[in-house]
Design brief:
Length: 384
């Protein structure tokens, strides 16, 4: 079965929803107007329940099928990014310094399209639980919704999500079992010495040599501590110190990010960074205050659910890749997959500017594929 006919007929309507959301981007947990727009449409479709104010501005809608059956969660994120748009589109952002540069407007429109279809047809048993989530780009709205108990409250048994993919051809679904996206951690440290006149270094404790040594040594975590066949990124992205040519600074600040795919590698990287910092501090006679922050865990697909999702995707599109190499970006859908089995898939929208680029724009031609996938997933899961 290709794209569902009634969803194909809905393409212009979904594009209208998406472009409205694109014009009015909101950040982090402050997605109140977006959520209000979503809730108004859901009420018009005739969903059975709407629960608002979850994770501040998130909402959950429930659509009941014909009799008892499985309970499946479908998630879309709603937040935008603090960027200035450069698409030149007629529907470009009207809010300075904000834009939908990651396709969350498209994710929301696709799930709305599926909601309308499922409400009209009800050709399934059990319940479809639609999760509209804020703050994917920032503090992890997915984590907050899980902590607020949505899995237990709505009886969700399995959970699925799509993400638009500007590196895939239009309508191509890509996924894999196991890790599909990385865990992300951040580190920040302040190397403290004793400042003074640069002409008299012997009267100072210069923090700069230690900071440079730490920066060099951090690269050995990947090159000498991690399995070469594994996946790990340690990137030092900020070094700030000093104010003048003739002043040895009192301190130097360093910061960066760590990406990993498995808990074991994640633990190793955190441990080795702490050991390197402590060792270099002792070697150079300075002190270093290290703040290592664990953020999103790795997004790990469950094998059975990934196979099921790929089979559903194949009903919608002939282009389905089930052995996608993992990517080192991060996703807070990972928290939902820690709580319930499920799968995360990429949906190709045609080759174009990358997400998080000021020229990125969701391709509305991809929406019927995504809405059909969500709908067919609900309709077929009860027969497994």
């Amino acid at each position: 079965m290709p794209i569902i006919n009634s969803i194909a007929d809905m393409a212009d309507e979904m594009a209208g929803w998406r472009r409205h959301l694109h014009r009015h981007p909101e950040l982090s947990l402050d997605c109140h107007e977006t959520a209000r727009f979503v809730a108004e449409r859901l009420r018009g479709f005739g969903v059975d329940e709407i629960h608002e104010g979850i994770a501040t501005s998130g909402l959950v809608a429930v659509i009941a099928g014909q009799g008892p059956g499985p309970v499946t969660g479908l998630r879309a994120d709603m937040d935008a990014l603090p960027m200035t748009e450069e698409t030149g589109a007629p529907w470009a952002s009207t809010v300075p310094g904000r834009m939908h540069a990651c396709g969350h407007d498209g994710h929301t429109a696709m799930l709305l399209g599926a909601a309308k279809y499922l409400c009209e047809t009800r050709r399934f048993t059990g319940r479809a639980v639609l999760i509209f989530q804020p703050a994917e780009e920032t503090i992890g709205g997915g984590r907050i919704m899980v902590e607020e108990g949505i899995m237990e409250r709505f009886g969700i048994e399995e959970v699925y999500a799509l993400h638009t993919d500007p590196f895939g051809t239009l309508g191509e679904f890509r996924t894999c079992p196991g890790p599909i996206m990385a865990a992300v951690d951040d580190f920040e440290m302040v190397v403290k010495g004793k400042g003074g006149h640069a002409a008299y270094p012997h009267a100072c404790v210069d923090p700069m040599p230690c900071a440079l040594a730490i920066g060099q040594a951090l690269q050995t975590v990947v090159s000498r501590n991690a399995d070469p066949l594994g996946s790990l990124v340690v990137s030092l992205t900020m070094i700030h110190g000093g104010t003048a040519f003739n002043i040895i600074p009192e301190s130097v600040r360093l910061a960066g990010t760590v990406r990993s795919l498995t808990p074991e590698v994640r633990d190793m990287a955190e441990r080795r960074i702490a050991e390197i910092v402590a060792g270099q501090a002792a070697s150079y006679g300075v002190t270093v205050d290290l703040d290592y922050r664990r953020n999103y865990p790795s997004t790990i697909n469950h094998a059975a659910q990934t196979g099921f999702a790929a089979a559903v995707a194949r009903e919608v599109s002939p282009d389905v890749i089930e052995d996608l190499p993992p990517e080192m970006g991060a996703e807070d859908f990972s928290y939902m997959l820690e709580k319930r089995p499920g799968a995360f898939l990429f949906l190709g929208q045609g080759i174009g500017p990358s997400v998080h680029h000021p020229a990125f724009d969701f391709n509305d031609a991809a929406a019927p594929y995504g809405a059909s996938f969500f709908s067919r997933l609900i309709e077929t899961r009860h027969a497994r």
